[in-house]
Backbone:
């Protein structure tokens, strides 16, 4: 009843208010972020040899040219959701900031976005992203894949949007517009930027996407190939139906020629590619259908189609089928799949979410897939299956828990094989996880225990065990929040490894991998001096107890059995 005065049912009003300079100055919000990361232990890449030693110049050329500090500086401005402007400068650890090899930050990005500006729905300048349909043609973003949120199989955001990340590869640099013409949204964009690659005589074997330029070898790959992209989308939206067409053309000033082997035999080769596709959504009573079909200029096809259905408020179902031809290899696809590449895969996914009783929720999915051609590490066609069942229980408002069982089976090469034909065997992994979350006053707790078993067709099962305790506390009358975790892990084999999300400073993303025997703990602090100034600080350390004397390899190797990281972030609003 309190909401009724603010709600109107009927046709929307497309008219938008004008933007005045005085409003931008008076009501616009500015944000500055300054972040520094540093590893406590010295890595091999920072250990230079004495200059007087013989032949040391060649050895030092392979070392990092910069210091161990990571630094990024970001500026953000926004006026409501109408005007958004941003600037980012970043230097990775090992990259030089001031020296003979390089001066300044290694990566710069500028972005600006206007929304609902006259007939234009969106205008982007500088660095941006473009996402349409299910991602078979155009969605250069990070995808999480399958998860316990079993109904989330289709992307939700679409269109042009500003780019504010520090990822140095998955974005466009240029300009784009989306105009609203009745029930049509028409988008066009153009990008022209330099990308990293190891070029030889006008060709390159692959794109270098790490964004790291720490050694002289890595620096020679920086901005060696020009990439131009032109694309667009037309989407028609009716009350219960939406259909769209997307096309994108990519052109390089050098020829991409991968070193051919079995797994990449069908990868794209050349200096120009065109990809186009049709995507759709439609709703029929309680049934929602969606999908997309894409094709490259060599005739390779990829299609993904699915539906969601809720026969009652207690039951929700989803099903999805995908077919990605081995020859379908485009640059900006991110869709539902078992692997990160959208090609050489056929699969069928079924998910269900059921609320049988009050406070209970049961989630489950089954995904079966097939790779009709060889993949990296799998030298023959193969199959795989994933299962997940999770039961959530909310005992009280401040107490919740879940039990999760997951099983997966896929193929890999038999390394001991001496035959001339490729031989495969299955890898099986089963895991069980219990998660308890509860709050008491200003305290928040989370307890996790997870165990897994992994084995192949010829070996015995190996085990993995992980247990963690999280504690969060927000002080009353004092603007400080503390997050602490202690975690123990014992992963006997690499196939028993764990991935565990952990809290971090603002806009940082951390999911470490754990393999071996050891423990990890971190302390994350947030302090607000006032409404304008906030700081975050994190210290994390991993200590191994499995008699290892070094960590990692190459320039990243550390002498000892522990790794310690510091992270600091300052945010200033004005």
Residues:
């Amino acid at each position: 009843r309190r909401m009724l005065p603010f709600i109107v049912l009927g046709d929307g009003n497309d008219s938008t208010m004008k933007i005045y300079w005085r409003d931008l100055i008076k009501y616009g919000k500015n944000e500055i972020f300054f972040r520094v990361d540093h590893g406590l232990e010295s890595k091999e890449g920072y250990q230079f040899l004495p200059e007087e030693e013989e032949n040391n110049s060649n050895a030092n050329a392979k070392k990092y040219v910069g210091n161990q500090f990571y630094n990024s500086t970001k500026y953000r401005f926004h006026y409501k959701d109408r005007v958004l402007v941003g600037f980012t400068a970043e230097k990775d650890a090992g990259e030089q900031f001031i020296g003979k090899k390089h001066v300044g930050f290694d990566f710069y990005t500028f972005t600006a976005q206007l929304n609902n500006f006259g007939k234009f729905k969106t205008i982007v300048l500088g660095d941006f992203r473009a996402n349409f349909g299910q991602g078979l043609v155009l969605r250069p973003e990070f995808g999480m894949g399958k998860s316990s949120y079993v109904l989330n199989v289709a992307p939700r955001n679409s269109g042009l949007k500003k780019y504010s990340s520090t990822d140095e590869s998955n974005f466009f640099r240029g300009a784009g517009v989306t105009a609203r013409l009745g029930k049509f949204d028409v988008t066009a964009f153009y990008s022209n930027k330099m990308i990293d690659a190891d070029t030889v005589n006008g060709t390159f074997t692959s794109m270098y996407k790490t964004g790291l330029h720490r050694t002289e070898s890595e620096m020679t790959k920086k901005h060696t190939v020009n990439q131009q992209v032109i694309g667009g989308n037309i989407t028609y939206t009716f009350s219960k139906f939406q259909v769209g067409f997307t096309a994108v053309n990519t052109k390089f000033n050098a020829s991409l020629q991968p070193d051919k082997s079995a797994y990449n035999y069908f990868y794209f080769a050349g200096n120009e590619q065109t990809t186009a596709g049709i995507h759709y959504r439609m709703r029929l009573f309680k049934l929602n259908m969606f999908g997309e079909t894409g094709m490259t200029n060599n005739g390779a096809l990829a299609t993904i189609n699915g539906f969601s259905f809720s026969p009652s408020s207690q039951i929700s179902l989803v099903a999805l089928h995908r077919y990605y031809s081995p020859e379908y290899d485009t640059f900006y696809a991110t869709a539902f799949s078992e692997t990160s590449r959208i090609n050489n895969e056929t699969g069928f996914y079924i998910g269900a979410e059921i609320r049988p009783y009050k406070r209970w929720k049961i989630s489950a999915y089954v995904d079966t897939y097939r790779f009709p051609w060889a993949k990296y590490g799998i030298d023959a066609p193969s199959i795989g299956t994933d299962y997940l069942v999770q039961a959530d229980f909310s005992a009280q408002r401040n107490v919740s828990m879940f039990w999760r069982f997951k099983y997966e089976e896929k193929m890999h090469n038999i390394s001991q094989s001496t035959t001339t034909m490729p031989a495969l065997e299955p890898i099986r992994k089963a895991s069980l996880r219990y998660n308890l979350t509860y709050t008491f006053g200003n305290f928040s707790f989370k307890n996790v225990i997870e165990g897994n078993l992994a084995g192949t067709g010829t070996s015995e099962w190996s085990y993995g065990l992980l247990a963690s305790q999280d504690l969060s506390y927000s002080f009353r009358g004092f603007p400080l929040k503390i997050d602490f975790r202690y975690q123990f892990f014992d992963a006997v084999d690499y196939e028993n490894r764990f991935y565990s999300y952990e809290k971090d400073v603002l806009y940082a993303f951390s999911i470490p991998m754990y393999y071996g025997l050891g423990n990890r703990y971190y302390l994350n602090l947030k302090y607000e001096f006032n409404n304008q100034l906030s700081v975050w600080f994190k210290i994390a350390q991993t200590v191994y107890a499995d008699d290892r004397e070094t960590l990692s390899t190459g320039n990243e190797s550390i002498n000892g059995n522990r790794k310690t990281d510091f992270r600091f972030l300052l945010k200033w609003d004005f």
